[in-house]
Amino acid sequence: MKFLIDAQLPKKLxxxxxxxxxxxxxxxxxxxxxxxxxxxxxxLSLRENRIIxxxxxxxxxxxxxxxxxxxxxxxxxxxxxxxxxxxxxxxNMPRILDEIEYHNVVEITRNSIITVD
Length: 117
Hints:
The protein is an alpha/beta fold. The protein has four helices and six strands; from the N terminus they run βαβαβαβαββ.
């Protein structure tokens, strides 16, 4: 699986994905870095079958309207420290991977994982 980590999430999360054997890039790795547009991110997701990880409701709304990006992990966790965010992924990654394989959107809250199609 390939992932794209959006700008409002820490670069350390992308590095955590990479350290765990996933192909992951952060928007800071892209030419326009933090200024990378949502349209560019969406197009990259579709072209490379990348799963976007984002807190941005624009991606969630776009999926509901246009069935794009490719797939989305939508984080509605509020403000968490980087370590707490990574811990949330560490604890839930097997379930997240199972759900994103069969569903287009997986919403992660502090206490639950919700799928959307």
